[in-house]
Amino acid sequence: MGLSEFFYHYFVEPITMNEGYNVVNTTVYAVILGIAVILLYKFLKRLEIRVDNRFFKALIPYIFLGPLMRSMTDRGIYPRTYLTVSPGAYFVIAAFAIAALYVVWRHVGAGEKFYPLYYEFGWILVGGNLFVLMISLDKINFRWEVLEYFIPILLAAEGFIWLLTRKFRLIRKNRLLFYTHFYDATTTFVGLQFFGYWEQHVLARELMGLLGTPAAMYLEKFIILLPIVWLLEKYSEEDEELTNFIKMTIFILGFGPGTRNLLIMLMGVRS
User: pTM here?
Assistant: First the structure.
């Protein structure tokens, strides 16, 4: 198999054929993500932008932009290409966010004016996509019954995390990450259990096959999150801002797919 055939088979074909992720592309994307996190962090440091709560709040519209555009692609509002579905869509969103960040930084620098302006610029991008969504409502068949399953199951899942925060300091200190990823797990569970969707990620598929239930998503979240947050807490004093940036990335990896899952179910997208 030549290099072009290898790339097409493991990276392009899974998207064009809607086959989901495999071991090869999952590993490569994970490596790319790790490298990107380090490079982006160094980029922010070079611009003297602090990675703190102000920066996280300014990122909120960009975090929402990704799942919104992704779900609009699944609904057929945007064309389905390598750059409009995962993971290409998130590369595009990241490019938007970085470009906007640089433009705002060039305009006002890294002072107090940066954060609200960057935040407002992000909502302009979200607003443009919401406008496209509004004029495309004829393509959407809203399925509100999804909420009848999603809300009570989400409350139960988050209630479980809340109980754990009462007992375990590590979970309490990182509760936002656990709440967010259990939100993601709940959207997956509801979609698979009640609405006939299927899981795209290879590890989750294997674990579900082993345990025989989509509820395995909750276990997967714990298996992955616990050692990561333990390591982050252990070495956080070495570079607190890098730790914050990694936690932001973990938050996005839960909130983005979870919100995309919820939106495509509400929009009536078929599996």
Answer: 0.90
